[in-house]
Amino acid sequence: MTRLSDDVLELEMDAVIKDKPEEGFTLVRKKISTVLQPNEVLIKVMTASFCGTDYHIYEYNNWARNRLNLPLTVGHEFSGEIIKIGSNVSNVKVGDIVSAETHITCGECEFCLRGEGHICQNTQVIGVDRDGCFAEYIKIPEKNCFINNADHCQVELSVQEPLGNAVHTITHFPIEGRDVVVLGCGPIGIMAVDVAKAYKARKVIAIEVNDFRLNLAKEIGADYVINPRKEDVYEKVMEYTNGMGADVIGDFSGHKGAIEQAFKYLKPGGGFAILGIPDEPLTIDVTNDIVFKGVRIYGVTGRRIYDTWFQVRDLLDHNLLHLDKIITHTMPLSDVNKAAELMKKKECGKIVLFPGGKCE
Ligand SMILES: [Zn+2]
Ligand SMILES: [Zn+2]
Question: What are the catalytic residues?
Answer without folding.
Answer: 53, 56
